[in-house]
Amino acid sequence: MTDDARWLDETEARAWLGYRRMFLLLNREVARDLAQECGLSEADYDVLSNLSGAPGDSIRLTKLAAHLKWSKSRLSHQLTRMQQRGLISREEHPSDARGAVIVLTEEGRRTIEEAAPNHVASVRRNFIDLLTPQQLAAFGDIAWSVVERLNEAAAPQKTS
Description:
DNA-binding transcription factor activity; WH-like_DNA-bd_sf; mainly alpha; 6 helices; about 160 residues; three-stranded antiparallel sheet; Arc Repressor Mutant, subunit A; 3 strands; about 10% strand
């Protein structure tokens, strides 16, 4: 067995391990704040914020699953829990009876509007306000560069 791995040097390892530790700690803190202050899980917030930003406060299930990068099964289970709490409803798509549309209810709208200020305060406290404007700009450039490359790699290949 040959060792063809391109091992990380000290600078690369520091960047990668720092990112991993930051990702875990930051997600834990923001999720904890969201649960304590708003009674929502990260998954609840992700669904509600996507619906509240969609035209007509509604979106097709398949489109929401693709946007969240979740399986339809995972999203369906999440939506069932949220529907039981009155945050969302499921409706048939007007032009495609096979497709479901997820709609934000009045309770869901009230919930996301109450949660959003607390959520952004947590994001600021645990991330934004810890960085200089230059660091924040560089971080944004880095993050979106990686996102674009990964999205390109995941895009279905066109066949001729």
